[in-house]
């Protein structure tokens, strides 16, 4: 998203997951950006993708993918949370959610 906290978080995940392309910074993930361009780009993506961004953008993007409407809540996001969406054919499903509270309990 271009924000320092998001870049730091992306670097931590990249260190742990070692993605083949590393971390790629993209525009369009700012809190108030339109989610449609990112949703459209994800539809054409065949590889796993991890996005690191901010609320309310991430919640609106998940809603857009899962329900087709960015304004219809599909996931209860919390700051510092992780939501995994999985595409099944033309549909997106919430695969799992990890909140900071859950991570601390592990």
Give the termini distance in whole angstroms: 28 Å
Helix proportion range:
25-40%
What is the succession of H and E elements? HHHEEH
Structural class: alpha+beta
Number of strands: 2
Please describe the biggest sheet, giving its number of strands, its sense, and whether it closes into a barrel: 2 strands, antiparallel
Shape from CA axes? globular
Number of helical stretches of at least 4 residues: 4
Strand order, biggest sheet? 1-2
Instruction: Detail the poorly predicted runs.
Output: none
Strand content: 5-15%
**Average pLDDT metric:** 90
What Rg is obtained from the alpha carbons, in whole angstroms?
13 Å
Give the structure's gist in a few sentences:
The protein has 106 residues and is α+β, with helices and mostly antiparallel strands.
Comma- or semicolon-separated keywords:
about 110 residues; alpha+beta; 2 strands; globular; His_PPase_superfam
Question: What can you see in these coordinates?
Answer:
With 106 residues, this protein is of the alpha+beta class. The chain has a domain at 4-77. It is built from four helices and two strands, in the order H-H-H-E-E-H. It has a two-stranded antiparallel ribbon. The model has no long low-confidence stretch (mean pLDDT 90).
What secondary-structure arrangement, pairings included, does this model have?
Layout: H1 4-17, H2 36-43, H3 57-67, E1 82-88, E2 91-98, H4 100-105
Antiparallel strand pairs: 1-2
């Amino acid at each position: 998203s271009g924000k320092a906290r998001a870049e730091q978080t992306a670097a931590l995940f990249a260190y742990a997951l070692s993605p083949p392309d590393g971390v790629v910074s993209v525009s369009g993930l700012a809190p108030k950006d339109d989610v449609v361009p990112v949703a459209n780009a994800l539809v054409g993506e065949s590889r796993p993708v991890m996005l690191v961004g901010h609320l309310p953008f991430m919640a609106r993007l998940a809603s857009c993918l899962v329900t087709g409407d960015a304004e219809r809540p599909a996931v209860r996001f919390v700051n510092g949370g992780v939501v995994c969406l999985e595409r099944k054919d033309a549909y997106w499903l919430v695969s799992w959610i990890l909140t900071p509270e859950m991570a601390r309990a592990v």
